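Hello support,

Our group uses your service weekly, and this is the first time we've seen a run hang past the timeout. The protein is Bacteriophage protein gp37. I'm not sure whether the cause is the sequence or the server load. Input pasted verbatim:
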Amino acid sequence: MSDHSSIEWTDATWNPVRGCTKISPGCARCYASTFAERFRGVKGHPYEQGFDLRLVPEKLADPFLWTARRRVFVNSMSDLFHADVPDEYIERVARVMAAADWHTYQVLTKRSERMADLLRTKLRFAADLPHVWWGVSVENRRHGLPRIDHLRAAPAAVRFLSVEPLLEDLGRVDLTGIHWVIVGGESGHGARPMAADWVRALRDRCEASGVSFFFKQWGGVRKSAAGRQLDARTHDDQPPVRDAHMPPRRVRLQMAEDCEAPAPAN
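Update from on-call engineer: The timeout came from a worker crash unrelated to the input. Re-ran successfully.
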């Protein structure tokens, strides 16, 4: 993936891990899996192995090499906290984020218990960094609401929720300690429907709680036609991005070289 992205709430994607496995209803029509499996067996393609999980240590240095500051969605094509990703490798990814602090990183997971545990232990050095935002996916009450509790209990400067695909009314969600909520419907063939009142309830909850609200899309089979307006306006709020100095190219190249030590065996 690259230093440019069409995802509405970010600027770039960075995938030092590729592939994942499905663990909850929100994964049923995973866009990343669908994309990756199209290229299974294509020699030389980044997804020659389809959506099988694998580490990609040669991508670790990417944030040092980009020529402009970015909001970076970390592992848009995987889950950094997958059980088969070693703690040591997750720490290497976090140390890159800590060092390349002119970017803003958006880390999203469904493995919220593991993330919370590591933020209290091996990732404690990165938990409170204002340029690293830690988030969880929320699709329904049963699977999503416990993830919010795990996130809230973890140390973090910025916590966010990606409520996409929103599959049901979430009720009166506790947003204590949450700074940003992204909401979106499922898109593509067979997309499950999302009711407008479910979205409005989350928007109103965010407004009452002082939480930034971002409405990403209605989704559906014709995503572009459905658009992303809610009650005749777009909602693009998000936490402020920290203003940070970007070092000169020679310094960034040295930093990239320093981070490219051998990775754990895949």
